[in-house]
Amino acid sequence: MDRPARLLIARHAPLAVAGLAGRRDVPADCTDRGALDWLRGQLSGVDHIWSSPALRCRQTCAAMGLAPEFLPDLWEQDFGVWEQDGIPDLGILPPERLAAQQPPQGESFLDMAARVQPLLARATGTTAIVAHAGTVRAALALAVGPAALSFAVAPLSLTILSHSSGGWAVEAVNRIAP
């Protein structure tokens, strides 16, 4: 990728029922009109709007009045059996080992990033994306590598990355409505 691009990546609204969703197609709680309106304003005037096809992302887009292109590569990481059983205590792992950790019947962060990053690299102009915390971290990994797993990504937050001939740069992470 040698052309300039800017990614405005919004995480979907909070889950209607707390927990680890991963690939489970669970609904979002889109009742925070103030945060949704603020985020909609941040995403205005873009060249493209993309979204994960997950129900929670579709609902978030609808609540903001967005009509995105739904792209399956933007789905959240598949946490396999951990989506039912919860994430076990993995102990203290360096980012590189944590990124490679594969849940039983699921995918590692590195697997998910290998799915998401080629799509992000095709972005042109300014692209708004409504997706998941994992998708945001996969984008951040373009600039910071596996250390991206260290970032908190709140629901209805905005992360901004830009690309130039020098590579990827992080403009903002986890911006939320004032």
What do you see in this structure?
The chain is of the alpha/beta class and 178 residues long. Helix content is 31%, strand content 20%. The protein has 6 helices and 6 strands. It has a 6-stranded mixed beta sheet with strand order 3-2-4-1-5-6. Helix 2 links the parallel strand 2 and strand 3 (69-70). Helix 5 crosses helix 6 (133-144). The chain starts with a strand and ends with a strand.
Task: Specify the helix fraction band.
Answer: 25-40%
Number of strands: 6
Q: SS-based structural class?
A: alpha/beta
| Unreliable spans | none
Strand content: 15-25%
Describe the global form. globular
- SSE order, one letter for each helix or strand: EHEHEHHHEHEE
Q: What's the mean pLDDT score? A: 93
Span of the ends, CA to CA: 34 Å
Task: Describe the strand arrangement of the main beta sheet, using strand numbers.
Answer: 3-2-4-1-5-6
Largest sheet: 6 strands, mixed
Query: Helix count, per DSSP?
Result: 6
Radius of gyration (Å): 15 Å
